[in-house]
Every structure is written in structure tokens, then in C-alpha cells.
Amino acid sequence: MKFKRRNTEALGDLICGNPGSDDPHSGGTPKYFPYRSSMYITEFFQDLDTEYTHDGSTRHRWVADVLDAMLAEPHEGPTRPPEIFCRVIDYLMAPNDAMNEGPGRPNALGQLNEILNREGFEAFYADDQHCYLRHIGTNTIGVFQTNPHRPLTEAETKRRKELIAYLEKCSEDELIEEILLPLFRQLGFHRITSAGHRDKALEYGKDIWMRYTLPTQHYLYFGLQVKKGKLDASGVTKHGHAGIGEIHHQALMMLAHDIFDPEVNRRVLVDHAFIVAGGEITKAARNWLGNALDAAKRSQIMFIDREDILNLYVVTNLPLPAGALPSTPDWPDEPPF
């Protein structure tokens, strides 16, 4: 990834605290970023666990060189900047560093977005009070901590409960369209195509197929078999549940039938199959599936249950579906009389 030089130098000005004036009687624009001398610029980057040390040259140009080097690091496609660059933006916009405004930092955010918008990105504060980058064209969010097993913040725990309530009432199509498609786009998959349930004859066990680009620019193709309820190993399937034997058979069908990728203009086989459950995959079902797969297929079939969906969706900071948001009354806060 590469930003125009004038934009990285403008970002360097913000990090150095150059724009604006500290003098309230000067008539100029107030400062919304703290001034950083050579020592504090070095400290800024050391706080991000990097080894950059200011060499005494022009500060904002030196910072621009550092940002150029960060943007050149490996990353997941043109819509997701490298993790270290996302961390720089978050640290720069720390609410505790607010100057001449409140902790929401609307003026500082406006100055930052004036620069980022020229490169097709937008910065915003999420519920966890961290500042994230969003690609304007695709709405993809750059993240800097995606470990789904880390402790959740209070705001993330609240969002998780709201998402659980949504999963309890949503349909299988809503699970696919409102939850899984945005989630896998955010995780870096491309060409995500939903088969839906209108034409089962053409589905061949695939509810979704998608593509992942390796760092070597080779492609891996994935198919998803999605069930809303619990997956169990019972011989008699209960209402709202699905048998793992049936799902396993559909996954094998998925791997056996090719798909057409219009971007490369050829038919390809699915490399891996995901079994996705909106409910729980019971321990018995997991054991049955593990015993049913031989060594050659074991790496081709993977499974994700509700807990995985919840944790991944929350830590990647995706907005909740409209149906998961608390409803608001239709009347105004104050009566007209």
C-alpha cells in the first residue's frame, strides 16, 4: 500500500503537532494535536513497540518516511492497511490527548479525515473508544487486534448479547446475508457469493462460496454449508436441529462439484469446506465428524459454531444488523403539548 507523499507528510504534521496555534489570541486555528519535539516523536513510536528513533532531520518529513515504510509492510489487500499503521492512527487519536475540545475529538477527527479521505479511507471511533480505519468504497474496517479469544470489553460484551438475541430469532437466510457475508468480507475473503435457497438444484451443498488470496497471489476457494440451528449426532433429528451425517454428506458434495469464477474465467474446485452452525455443534457431532474424515479430507473440512461466530463478529468491530439494534419509539421524547 502506498499513500501520496503530500498525504503522509500531512499525517506527519498531525503526529508532530504542527498545525494550529497554542495562542488563543492569535486568531489562527486552535491546536487539536499535542506538539511533539524530537524526543517525544521517538517516544511516540517506541510506545507502539517499534524501533524508530528520530535522527534530528525535519520532523514531519522524517515521520512521513516512517509512515511510508509502515504502509509498505505486508497486509491483506488494498482495503486493509497494515496493522502497525492502524495502531498509529489509534494511538494518535487517543481520547486522553484531546486539546481544545472534548474526548470525542471531533475537530481532530475532521483534520485527520480530510487527509485520509483523499486516499479512500475514513477514521471513526467505535464503542470501545478506539479509533479505526474504514475503507470508504467497500466499508472494510482495518483492525489491529483480531484475536477472538481475548477478553472482551464491557461494550463488546453488550454487543455480543445483542447479537445472541438476533441469532435466536433470525432466519437461515438472514444469518447468511446479515452476519456471515459481512464477517467473511471483513476477514479478507473475496468474491463472496451466496447461493441462497431459491434454486436448490444448482447449490450442490454450497450456501456460500468465496475466495482467499494467499501472499503469493495464489487462490484458495472455500464453500460454506450453513445451518441455523444445532448440529447433533442423533439418529432422529429434532425440530430446529440438523444431523451431522447429512451435513457431512453435503460437504462432500461441495468438494466434488466445481464452481465458475468469472474473474479468472474458468471452473475451479472448492479447496476447503466450512460447516457453519448458528447454534451449537455438540461434542458428539464433533467426534462423529472427526472419525468420519480420513487423513486426506481432515484438512479440507472445518467447522464453526455460534461461539466462533459471536467472538469473530465482535472483535472485528462489525456493526450489528438492523434487526439486532434496540427498537426506538415512534413518538418524540417530549409531547407536543
From TrEMBL:
Region (Disordered), start-end ranges: 1-29
The organism of origin for this protein: Micromonospora arborensis
Listed name of the protein: Restriction endonuclease
